[in-house]
Amino acid sequence: MKKILVAVALLSLAGTAFAAGKPCEELKSEIAAKIDANGVQHYTLEVVDKGAAADGKVVGSCGGGTKDIVYKRG
Predict the structure, then answer these.
(1) Which residues constitute the signal peptide according to the record (predicted)?
(2) Into how many domains does the chain fold?
């Protein structure tokens, strides 16, 4: 019984860590590196509140799901 309780406690802690996700600036720079590697030159990446991506494409989520990273070309 104690093993089950310990396992449940560890899984709940791990779930919290996964929900936190990466910091926004770290994820933004990883996405930028991938875009640069594909040869794209004129673009912007912007961290915005979730749902505020009116004129761009959401390419990532950070801040525990409260922020989006928006890609705009040009």
Answers:
(1) 1-19
(2) 1
